[in-house]
Specification:
- By secondary structure, the chain is α+β, with helices and mostly antiparallel strands.
- It has three domains: 73 residues; 155 residues, no CATH class; 167 residues, Orthogonal Bundle (hpI Integrase, Chain A).
- It contains twelve helices and 13 strands.
- Strand 4 and strand 5 form a beta hairpin.
- The longest helix is centred in the middle third of the chain and has 20 residues.
Length: 404
């Protein structure tokens, strides 16, 4: 099996004396992965460490997913929902984008309350969601889990219903209901419901693959998908006059506005996603050369002033905790396209003029990108979101304001 190892190392228990309580942390390593488990009582920590050492000395295999001996695992009908979710997250992690990793984590966090076996000793809701999203359902950070969060995750491992409970239609329907509900109890947006349901369906397909369920219980529940429309609401699309006012309002915002005007112009004229526009480099842009007017001696725009964008990567800002490289941006192939597939987009003459002026005034950032922050670093989403929000309030009068 790929998820077991016989390479185990156990270190001396670490003692942390806080202002109110003392915590004893058992520390060990399975293969390349480090683990920590906190205990409030020294005797409990000593007992747990002794059991680990005993299993290792007997030559038992250790589960790389849980860090524990395989013989301890709760298998079959007894595998808890939390333990299963952790294994599902780990299975999906390698081949998922950072954004999809975060979506998986949040979908599983959303349905967790419906799978609690008891309310006795239940952690605070916010603390439980934080522990799950930042550590429990994050394969990258789980080994460095904070002590207070580790206690919450251990409670969940012992107090969530077994996966087999989802064979009960009432339980499955409660989980699906939770997948479509926001924290305040209101119904989530149709896109959110569809995404959470899709992730849940895929997770339970994995449960069937592991023979924890005989069939996917999602398929047995009658469910009416929320209605959505793919028609564009013309009231939400700015016209040319509004676009010019918006770009002017962006340009007037100091100090970053002049740099952002061309960024929003690219999005408007070529319909690029923000994560595609922010990753554009000079090599991705082909602009027609200026021509010399023999009569005046001046360099002028050519009669055919169309250019082209050619790119194959996007830069999604999601957070360092979800990316492999530890950067806030995840640099990956384009959405819904194969790795290495290039996208070609024509540049109309008005945008050609804007890009020429932008490159003449600002050049490129330290990493060669066309659009950067005022200090030359990668353009942050919070920067352009704030600028766009202010521009909307400035440029669009109430009668012309597009409906959200």
């Amino acid at each position: 099996m790929d998820n077991i190892t016989y390479s185990v190392r156990i270190w001396k228990t670490e003692t942390y004396k806080g202002a109110m309580v003392t915590t004893y942390k058992v520390r060990w390593k399975t293969g390349p992965k480090r683990w920590k488990r906190p205990f409030r009582a020294k005797a409990q920590a000593a007992s747990f460490e002794a059991e680990l050492r005993s299993a290792a000395s007997r030559g038992e295999a250790f589960d790389m997913t849980t860090g524990q001996p395989v013989s301890w695992g709760r298998v079959g009908d007894n595998l808890s929902w939390y333990d299963f979710c952790v294994s599902y997250v780990d299975m999906k992690w390698k081949d998922s984008s950072a954004h999809h990793r975060a979506n998986i984590a949040w979908a599983l966090v959303t349905v967790m309350p419906a799978m609690l076996a008891t309310d006795r000793g239940k952690p605070d809701g916010l603390a439980m969601r934080t522990a799950l999203r930042q550590w429990g359902f994050n394969a990258k950070q789980r080994g460095d889990c904070r002590d207070d969060a580790a206690i919450i995750l251990r409670w969940l491992a012992h107090n969530t219903k077994p996966v087999a409970a989802l064979a009960d239609p009432a339980t499955m329907r409660a989980v699906l209901g939770a997948a479509g509900t926001l924290l305040d109890g209101s119904t989530a947006a149709p896109s959110t419901i569809r995404r959470n349901r899709t992730i849940l369906h895929n997770a339970l397909e994995y449960a069937v693959e592991r023979r924890l369920l005989t069939r996917n219980p999602v398929k047995a529940i009658k469910w009416k998908a929320p209605k959505t429309t793919h028609e564009v609401d013309r009231r939400c699309v700015v016209n040319h006059a509004q676009a010019r006012r918006l770009l002017a309002a962006v340009r007037e915002q100091m100090p970053s506005g002049p740099r952002l005007a061309a960024f929003f112009a690219v999005i408007y004229y070529t319909a690029l996603r923000p994560e595609e526009a922010v990753n554009l480099c000079k090599d991705n842009i082909t602009l027609p050369p200026l021509v010399r007017n023999n009569a005046t001696g001046e360099w002028e725009e050519p009669a055919d002033d169309w250019g082209e964008l050619r790119f194959c990567l996007a830069s999604t800002e999601i957070g360092a905790e979800w990316t492999d490289a530890g950067s806030r941006h995840d640099h990956r192939h384009l959405k819904a396209r194969a790795r290495g597939e290039w996208r070609h987009v024509p540049i109309p003459p008005p945008l050609t003029r804007i890009l020429r002026a932008h490159l003449d005034q600002f050049g490129t950032g330290r990493d060669g990108r066309i659009f950067s922050g005022i200090h030359g670093g990668e353009l942050a989403s919070i920067t352009y979101r704030r600028a766009w929000g202010k521009a909307r309030r400035t440029a669009l009068t109430p009668p012309n304001t597009p409906h959200r």
